[in-house]
């Protein structure tokens, strides 16, 4: 391994500084520069960070912070000329025109005057854009260093801007123009459960039907200072009755989707899978997480991480098909499905590798349709083209998977939560394979997760109405 050559920073002392000399740097304004400057400074002026507001403003587009340009002078003075040991005294700048994304600024400082009694130096400062037009001018006064300093240039860490709100808006854009889905909310008797339903209503995603003890729900709404005006509320005595009534509303077609409130998941799902009064179909019920991961180029589905503990090969067939159906509903015409294991070769001692191979053959024989399957694949080979190439894996799925099918619930649950908590993934989740889509909320879910999960139900209901083949 070759060592990188050391890059040095060396200053000009007061004695070495000459009137008329100076230095310059050139920088291009990128969208991430605007976001990072806003985070560091706390300046959230919508002119800089809100595209919709900016389009209606004076400049008709997003403009950069003027002081981003001003900071270039500080970079020259502290790094280039005079360099290390320089102390700022004052800065006087005039801003003549905006800096927009893509503008390339050349900032210059030129020595105007030196003051021997206190080692101060006055600089003229100018910044011009790529068209040679003046953007900034003014002066800067510094205390110049009196001792020679030569230091290795410090390598700064790479900074990544993870815009979770922007990713959330991209996900929500999938359901724009769709009517709210009428959703039965079973026992919303906690803060997270009630607010989750009302937040989704406010976003135009659902028309909630709250099923639970009326007195508890209305008292909770008063405590949280939220309005139930226009919201249907069906009174039930306890959580079990809430689950039964909510499922019945979906079975009768009065509601097109179901949402878990503050009752236990097992209590709701036992009603869902009840043979006489539930919502079962010929398809195995399974759960899919939709993850928007900052370091992955497109949405990633993980299944099953919430319902099936140790699914059989037959059950995995339905799990895969359910995920493919969801991919179709959100516009992925031929999703790439990676069947995960610990290794990428078939090993009879590792059951998941044998079942992965069998699932791929089932797809070849038409038992699974609508997707492109490959497996077994280790996780790195499924999401990294580099890892797949290093291991000599030639596959249209490897390195570019849309769907990750995990061996069991433990693996899936850990994978999904690692992406959410360690990789800052935006998560949404939905239960498929029943007569209606089901949203399973958790106390740990963020408002964005709850609303996005409801949006998936809304998209599935709309897809089914348009004739897409989904379980019924």
What this model shows, in words?
By secondary structure, the chain is an alpha/beta fold. It contains 15 helices and 18 strands. It has helices at 31-41, 46-49, 51-55, 66-80, 164-172, 191-202, 214-224, 239-251, 265-272, 313-329, 351-364, 379-383, 385-390, 409-422, 447-465; strands at residues 8-10, 22-28, 87-95, 104-115, 120-128, 134-143, 150-152, 181-186, 206-212, 232-235, 257-260, 286-292, 300-303, 336-340, 372-377, 403-405, 426-432, 438-439. It has a 6-stranded mixed beta sheet with strand order 15-14-16-13-12-17, with helices on both faces. A 5-stranded antiparallel beta sheet has the order 2-4-5-6-3, covered by helices on one side. A 5-stranded parallel beta sheet has the order 10-9-8-11-18, with helices on both faces. Strand 4 (104-115) and strand 5 form a beta hairpin. Helix 6 crosses helix 15 (447-465) and helix 8 runs parallel beside helix 9 (265-272). The longest helix has 19 residues, at 447-465. The radius of gyration is 30 Å and the shape is elongated. The mean pLDDT is 90.
Characterize the main sheet: 6 strands, mixed
Beta-strand fraction estimate: 15-25%
* Helix count from the secondary structure assignment: 15
Work out the helicity level: 25-40%
Rg, rounded, reads 30 Å
Oligomer: single chain
Structural class: alpha/beta
Low-pLDDT windows of residues: none
Q: Distance between termini?
A: 60 Å
Number-wise, the strands total 18
What's the mean pLDDT score?
Answer: 90
Shape: elongated
Strand order within the widest sheet? 15-14-16-13-12-17
